[in-house]
Amino acid sequence: MNLRDLNTDLQYSDYYQIFFISLTVGLGGILRVHTIGFDSFWLDEAITMYFIHTMTFQELVTELPKAQPHLPLYYILLKAWIAISGTEEGAVRMLSAAFSIASIPILYALGKRLYGFQVGAIAALMLTVSPFQIYYAQEARMYSLLAFLTVASYYCLLRYLDSRQNKEMLLYIVSAILLAYTHVFGLFIIVSQILYYLWREWIGSEDWRSFIRETGKISVPVGIGAAPAVGMIAAKVFIPNAYGSGSQVQHIPAPPNWHDIISAYTHFTVRHPHPPMSIAVQVGLLVGIGGALFVPSYLLSRKKSVFLWIWLLVPTCLAIVLSYLIQPIFFPKYLIGCSIALYLLFARGVALIPRPNVRTILLAIILLNSVALNSFQFTNHQKREFKSAAQFVDRGYSPEDLIIVDKRKSSSPFGYYFDRAGMPTVGDITGPLRPTIRKQVRKVDTVWVVFSSSKRPHRRKVLRNVRRTHNRAAIKRFAGITAYRFVEEPSHMEQ
Hints:
The protein is α/β, with parallel strands linked by helices.
């Protein structure tokens, strides 16, 4: 007996199921397309566009991995995409939205195959309204592709294990290899899949020869196909002077502690805390997952439970271990593939709660609060508004002006929008202004200073140096950015 047997009295017609998933996918599409061009490109997206514009398809395969800590598949797809869609923010991000929307019906099919219609439907709804998923569906980065290929490859693996057909095996191998070239955490997902596959074959094999024969059918071709991706990552870490540098993930300063790990799982449902809405979603999630405690363990399929828990925990554990042994790589958005397993565990638990009214109330609380959190996301800037800051500078700029963009990780997206030949921009100012920069400040009548991520004491130090020779003429604050305009003091001009 399993969860399917507990729901034999519940019959859903094919028309009802088709209507439900069509409605869910439509809702997911609306949520992901709404305000998709509201924010300007931020740092990572501007870097993405830089590589797309400056590299050929071949260079994206051979040279990009040297300059980025990521793998090339998404960049290749995006370069082909913008040739059709153009380079406006909304149009570029539509590729990510498309992958996120496509994940919804596949997750529904996976949940339905595991535990029936109810679990598939609830998991699909969780994915549909998740602020975490919607945010990365509206970002020109590879994270929604990572989530799509994760759920697609797991679904293909499950179909193969149920049917043992060569066609299903080929689909899994292809999806897994594509996953390997999307992101390094895609390799962690593949490890979790291979571990589950080995476990399934081990408990079902009659002798070690049949075990080796069956496991080799998938493990060998996936391993061969993913080997170049593994080599790229390994070379970055162990041979930095020869092939890029592992230090490119400097935004992760230290290995994760318990708070970081718990925060990562919190991100999967609410992304940013906004009490009491986020608390309601998190508590509801825990209650839902705990629904599995309402039935004896023998009613649950051990194979399916291991399937979900390996999916959720193995990539997380690998990221934690490697963060301590080699270099910090643990980051919530990199674990976006694991979030889908969390939705399935929640859906399974809710379906097992014996009281229908409790299930309905719990789902209503989570869905309504998730919609409220999305409303906050849609009406407030989620990224730094480099486009608005560049337009502010552009309106008063002349070729003789000096622009200080503090620091380098601000200059890339600012330069993307403020595209002028020979723009005299000075970036990457660390500590006191360098003597050479102070000389440049004294030589010009107008100085623009753009701050993004620098800390307040450093800002005061930079501004103090500029104020020695210039007066503040204008200041404009945007989402995450402050832009100043300084003009030379009259007394200094007379000298």
